[in-house]
Design a protein that fits this description.
This protein is α+β, with helices and mostly antiparallel strands and 732 residues long. Helices cover 51% and strands 18% of the residues.
Length: 732
């Protein structure tokens, strides 16, 4: 469940987000030079440049805060502050701004914050592109008719540029091929590395022996095109961070331990079974444990999806990750750290991710059949022409290299990334961010869609439904009581009544009773707003807050608002022939009402995280391909276990990290478009493979008969790559 602030995603300032993040990086660079505490918070309600400015300006005004940086992409806030500043203080200030915040463990996240591979590929691609332009200029002079010493000079200068370029820019292919050979197998990079090495070798040989042709421009161009494909593929996969790491980072890193009445802040790792910890109102429970004293209400929505807070008194069992709402609790530790329920959930996510990563892509299948034949074909051409020509080594090597270049899987390497990039751009404009390059292929196979309810099909915010049924005097009293409470239903009621222009009644002696509600005196009468039993009312089947004014009892009912596009999405899925299932941790009445409203026949309520994942595994075992759409911690295991998964941008980091696609806006209807686009994209990928196969069937025999030089082979190979890219651009 997400709070109201996290649902407000649309704002004109969103278009300025990249520029705002660029300036934020400068603040982070300054922060590295400062000593002090580093606090990291997840801020799921941050959506745009205006959010960055609001949060950073406000926190930088806090005494003791030295530097603040909000990463909008990760929805992660880094604060460098004096040692006395605690994460809870920063989180409280953020809540006053309207942003929910959860502390993350910096040590757990440190391994996920580098992008070295992307920068490395981009740098090598830039070097290859720059060198290619220079070598092509020299080659034009040779093609124009330069001969003898002039031609040899141009070839030599080209060699001085091309050889270091290939040695540097081709390292991703050389390293990959070497690792595969060392493991006793041949991958797609093996023929690529061999083509680069042989082309450089024959070009150097021709240059040193005053040959008429050298192929330095071909080898640099080949390297450049291959790096484009490799970089596109990397960008398609770069956002797929480990959900298990994100989930582990949500564990509370510190807790307040009670010993002999003395409070001490200690790392959670130092807690032992039997220790007593204090959980203050507004804080997350750091351990699994049993309440020893105190009364409060617990928000379990992040873990179970249940919208209503649960009462917690002496003897109540709590789990790590739950949020204490109204009163302080003393909790006896039963499990902490790696033994907690939250950490066990992280282990389940890691196992599910490992299983899903076994998916074999279309490119992998093509590579297994294609890669071993390339060097064998080239070797066969070399031996055959060496025998036919009576030992002419130069001719045999030229034909072998031309064959190797023509069969080089450059087009095959571009076939998937080019389509994924084009389709991802189209979906991005529809409000969907593709994180994993294989997501489109997996989406195209989906026949079953499983939805979470709270925060996914709904906005996760309670909405009063019967405000017009109450007289103004009672509504004003309810408004005054609701404004004095931090309970989610009370806040929603206060917002709804204030929006109707009502003024709160004048109350006296107001006090909140943790776990029950809030009470006060009005004109000599006791008034209460809270649970049904506490105010003496008969409980309804629906979600409600109950008001008592003397002997009068009233109920304010609530319903979770549907996310825009939910009805259209479910109707579209039924039209596409998909099986639709609703699985929620919420109470049966709420889930049944939602299922009936949307026309979903198959639904399940009060489902635990493990039960959601087990249902998905059972569907997979029955031969179904499942798309899971969810947003909470209770959905994380299911998101990772599904064949493919989608989460809203307002979801927690762990849920977004476990998913393959992120829904950027509030409207969920584009999910149906994503399924249609995925089938089109997969069809384009298959077309590219067929196109590459036809190209080889036509030109490989020409190369084998010695009718093309390595230069012409490189040009034909480049034309094939361009054709593949143009076919992918048809998606736009």
């Amino acid at each position: 469940m997400t709070d109201a602030s996290s649902s407000l995603s649309a704002c004109p300032a969103c278009v300025a987000a990249p520029a705002a993040e660029a300036s934020a990086r400068q603040a982070e660079a300054r922060a590295r030079a400062l000593d002090g505490a580093r606090i990291i918070l997840s801020v799921p309600g941050a959506h745009c440049a205006a959010c960055i400015g609001t949060i950073e300006r406000d926190l930088e005004a806090m005494p003791g805060v030295r530097s603040v940086r909000l990463n909008l992409t990760l929805k992660r806030l880094s604060v460098h502050a004096d040692e006395g500043i605690e994460a809870a203080t920063v989180a409280t200030r953020l809540e006053k701004l309207g942003y929910d915040a959860h502390e993350l463990d910096p040590g757990t996240l440190s391994m996920t914050e580098t992008d070295r591979q992307g920068r490395d590929l981009l740098m090598r691609m830039a070097v290859a592109g720059f060198s290619m332009m220079n070598v092509m200029l020299l080659s034009v002079a040779v093609w124009a008719g330069a001969t003898d010493a002039t031609r040899d000079l141009f070839h030599l200068v080209s060699a001085l540029i091309a050889v270091p370029t290939v040695a540097f820019s081709g390292q991703p292919f050389f390293r990959s091929a070497f690792r595969a050979l060392r493991a006793g197998r041949l991958n797609m990079d093996g023929p690529i590395a061999l083509a680069l090495i042989l082309t450089v070798a024959i070009s150097l040989y021709e240059t040193l022996h005053s040959g008429h042709h050298a192929y330095f421009e071909a080898v640099v161009m080949l390297t450049f095109f291959l790096l484009i494909g490799r970089y596109l593929d990397y960008r398609a996969r770069a956002l797929a961070r480990s959900a298990a790491q994100e989930l582990a980072a949500l564990e509370v890193p510190r807790a307040t331990r009670l010993r002999d009445g003395i409070e001490t802040t200690v790392p959670v790792a130092e807690l032992a079974v039997g220790d007593l910890v204090l959980v203050r109102p507004g804080g997350r429970v750091p351990v699994d444990g049993v309440v020893m004293s105190g009364q409060s209400e617990i928000d379990r929505s992040l873990l179970t999806g249940e919208t209503l807070p649960a009462f917690a008194g002496e003897g109540a069992v709590l789990c790590a990750g739950e949020v204490n709402l109204t009163g302080p609790l003393s909790v006896r530790v039963t499990a902490a750290g790696k033994d907690s329920s939250l950490h066990r959930m992280a282990d389940l996510v890691a196992m599910a991710e490992a299983s899903r990563n076994k998916y074999t892509t279309l490119a992998d299948k093509a590579a297994r059949a294609y890669a071993p034949t390339i060097p064998l074909l080239s070797l066969g051409a070399f031996l055959a022409w060496l025998w036919i020509s009576g030992g002419d080594l130069r001719l045999a090597v030229n034909i072998a290299v031309a064959t190797l270049i023509i069969t080089c899987p450059c087009a095959l390497g571009l076939a998937v990334p080019a389509v994924v990039t084009a389709a991802s751009g189209r979906l991005f404009r529809k409000g969907l961010l593709i994180k994993d390059g294989t997501a489109l292929e997996r989406l195209a196979e989906v026949d079953t869609v499983v939805f979470d309810k709270t925060g996914t099909l709904t906005l996760g915010t309670p909405d009063p439904t019967n405000l017009d049924d109450h007289p103004e005097a009672a509504a004003c009293i309810a408004l005054a009581l609701a404004q004095g409470s931090g309970h989610p239903l009370a806040q929603a009621l206060a917002k709804g009544l204030s929006g109707r222009g009502l003024r709160p009644a004048r109350l006296e002696a107001m006090q909140e009773v943790p776990g029950y509600g809030i009470e006060a005196q009005w004109q000599g009468h006791k008034v209460r707003l809270g649970r049904a039993a506490w105010v003496g009312a008969e409980a309804l089947d629906s979600t409600a807050a109950y008001l008592a004014i003397g002997n009068e009892r009233r109920a304010f009912t609530f319903a979770d608002r549907l996310r825009p596009g939910a009805e259209e999405l479910v109707a579209a899925l039924h039209k596409q022939g998909k099986q639709v299932i609703l699985i929620s941790g919420d109470v049966p009445a709420a889930v049944r009402d939602m299922a009936d409203r949307l026309g979903i026949a198959d639904w399940q309520a009060e489902a635990l995280p493990q039960e959601k994942a087990a249902r998905i595994e059972a569907l997979h075992a029955a031969g179904h391909k499942v798309l899971m759409v969810g947003d909470g911690l209770n959905d994380t295991v299911a998101l990772a276990a599904a064949h493919v998964s989608i989460s809203p941008a307002s979801a927690l980091d762990a849920a977004r990290a476990a998913s393959d696609v992120v829904l950027l806006g509030r409207d969920i209807a584009p999910v149906a478009y994503a399924l249609t686009m995925s089938r089109t994209a997969t069809r384009r990928i298959r077309e590219n493979f067929w196109q590459s196969g036809i190209y080889n069937a036509v030109f490989v025999p020409i190369a084998l008969f010695g009718l093309v030089t390595p230069l012409i082979a490189a040009a034909v190979m480049s034309l094939s790559s361009i054709t593949v890219a143009l076919n992918a651009l048809r998606l736009k």
